[in-house]
Every structure is written in C-alpha cells, then in structure tokens.
Amino acid sequence: MNIRGRNKVSPEFNMSSMTDIVFLLLIFFMLTSTLVTTNALDLVLPKAKGKTDSNKSISVSINKDLQFFIDKKLVDETNLEQELLTAIGTQENKAIVLRAEEGVPIEKAVSVLDLANRNQIKVVLAVRPK
After folding, report:
1. Residue 126 burial (CB < 10 Å; 0-12/13-18/19+)?
2. 88, pLDDT greater than 80
3. How far apart are CA 114 and CA 31, in angstroms?
4. pLDDT for 69-79, tens place per residue?
5. CA distance 3 to 77
C-alpha cells in the first residue's frame, strides 16, 4: 500500500511577487514625491545652527529687491498686514514663517515682526542650516 500523498509542496520560494510589490511601491513613491512642492520662493537664507520646520504655516518672504511675498503672492508693503490677516483667517494656531533673504535690512524684518506682534501671531525666522 502506498500511503504517501500525491501533493508535494515545493520548498522553493518564488520572488516574482515580491519584486512586483517593490516595483509598485517604487513607482508610487516616485509619483508622490514629484507632487510635493514647498510653498516658498528661492531665497538665500542666512546661516544658523537651527533648522526651520515647515508645518502648514503661511510664509512671509522678503527678497533682496525688498519685495514682500505672502507664500508666493507679491504683496505691497503697505497692504501686508491686511493681506496677512486675510491669509491667516481663523486659524487656531496663528503662525508665520519669516523668510528674509541675506542682505535685507533688519528694519524690514522688524516691521514684519512688529506687525505679527500687534496681531498676536507667532513668528518663526527661517534659516538655512550650517
């Protein structure tokens, strides 16, 4: 009598399904990484030991030509406060990231700090790491 079973399990491991999964994950991350863009201008920031955390805050940028931007929108210096308050709206944690390019007079950055202080808005100064 032959009692052995007819179905034998193959001891080999098939890697084709694993490579398919890895390939699909690679394509997914390549596509999603191209969709992530920072909402900031290309400025040369001053160096410091810290690092700026970007967490869905509104950024106020000042370039070398002393032009003011809220996120990427050009704003006149006289209308900066009104535009900033409309951009912030009714957020719970009112915070902005101040991105002043190297060579911008400190008076311009202080005017934005003063504006934020009057409206109880927290300000984070953006720097590039050393």
Report:
1. buried
2. yes
3. 41
4. 998 899 998 88
5. 91
The answer to whether the predicted template modeling score (pTM) of the entire model surpasses 0.85 is: no
Q: Report yes or no: 67 and 79 within 8 Å, Cβ to Cβ.
A: no
* For residue 40, pLDDT beyond 60: no
Longest dimension (CA), the chain: 99
Angle of helix 106-118 relative to helix 80-88, nearest 10 degrees? 50
Q: Which residues pair with 60 in a beta bridge?
A: 70, 98
Report residue 81: phi and psi, to 5°. Answer: -65, -45
C-alpha distance from residue 79 to each of 36, 69, 116 (Å): 30, 11, 14
Q: Is the dihedral of CA 25, 53, 43, 56 positive or negative?
A: positive
Q: Is the pLDDT of residue 14 over 70?
A: yes
Does the pLDDT of residue 22 top 90, yes or no?
Answer: yes
CA distance 96 to 8: 66
